Inverse folding.
């Protein structure tokens, strides 16, 4: 599925309490360990853009040498990793979810694509100086508390070669602060009706979302997320502390200007 069926925010995907306010047992596993499974393509697929087009745009934003080494952190089912490998890059896809990696492996095998798939937590993935670029796409950053999110940035910096680039494709916190992220909408998708509820909490600066799909046969499936949305200033500080500097901030992968109302916040940072 290509473009979003309606003007819905390019989703985002934490811990947590569903929006209904139901209590979650302190022993419950965090959301990011449970929701990325076979339901994901149905619940989020309709909000994804065309990955081939996104790969072309990403390569336009980064100047990568032929055959560069790229790590896709939170690669999911390989939407970007596979097209990148087809273009001759040496790609490593890292993801915590065995189910998502299973989908990625199966597709890569079908298409004869060569990608290294690694099942690892981004808070622990360390391969010093191994990569020319690191990609974090479709809001795959911000899932943890501030300390752990910062550890992810620290790992990325360590894993990049000197001069290597990080591209973060994130939600735009300005929209959250302006109340533009809060919404409840229903969109028609091939398998039924998808209800999307998003609330931005100004205090925690986390976006919480629920996606509920009612399939044509009446069966309902749902997911709930909770992601920390950082400002440009916060990210700049975090990146600087990790030995990186911000090279550009765009409002989308198209390279649009980053404004308070921009669709996304796309940050490109370089390892010093
Ligand atoms: C929103 S999806 C995006 C996937 C992919 N980037 C895309 O655009 O299709 C986020 C991905 O991050 C993965 N993920 C969640 N927590 C993770 C963690 N702690 N370490 C590594 N990957 C994680 C999920 O399994 C999921 O595949």
């Amino acid at each position: 599925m290509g473009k979003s069926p309606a003007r819905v925010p390019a989703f985002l995907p934490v811990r947590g309490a569903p929006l209904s306010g139901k209590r979650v047992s302190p022993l419950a596993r965090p959301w990011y360990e449970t929701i990325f499974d076979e339901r994901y393509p149905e619940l989020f697929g309709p909000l994804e853009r065309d990955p081939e087009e996104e790969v072309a745009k990403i390569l336009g934003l980064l100047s990568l040498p032929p055959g560069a080494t790229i790590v896709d952190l939170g690669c999911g089912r390989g939407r970007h990793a596979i097209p990148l490998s087809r273009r001759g890059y040496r790609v490593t896809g890292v993801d915590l979810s065995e189910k998502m990696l299973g989908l990625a492996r199966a597709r890569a095998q079908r298409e004869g694509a060569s990608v290294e798939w690694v099942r690892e937590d981004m808070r622990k993935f360390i391969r010093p100086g191994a990569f020319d670029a690191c990609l974090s796409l479709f809001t795959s950053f911000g899932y943890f508390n501030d300390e752990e999110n910062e550890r992810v940035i620290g790992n990325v910096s360590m894993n990049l070669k000197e001069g290597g680039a990080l591209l973060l494709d994130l939600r735009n916190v300005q929209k959250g602060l302006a109340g533009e992220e809060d919404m409840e909408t229903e969109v028609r998708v091939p398998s039924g009706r998808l209800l999307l509820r998003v609330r931005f909490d100004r205090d925690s600066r986390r976006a919480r979302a629920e996606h509920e799909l009612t399939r044509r046969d009446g069966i309902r499936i749902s997911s709930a997320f909770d992601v920390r949305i950082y400002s440009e200033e916060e990210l700049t500080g975090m990146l600087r502390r990790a030995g990186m500097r911000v090279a550009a901030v765009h409002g989308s992968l198209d390279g649009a200007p980053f404004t308070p109302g921009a669709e996304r916040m796309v940050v490109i940072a370089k390892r010093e």
Q: What stands out?
A: The pocket of S-adenosylmethionine is lined by residues 13, 32, 36, 74-76, 79, 94-97, 100, 121-123, 137-140, 143 (CB under 6 Å). The first strand starts at residue 69 and ends at 73. The domain at 174-228 is CATH 2.20.25 (N-terminal domain of TfIIb).
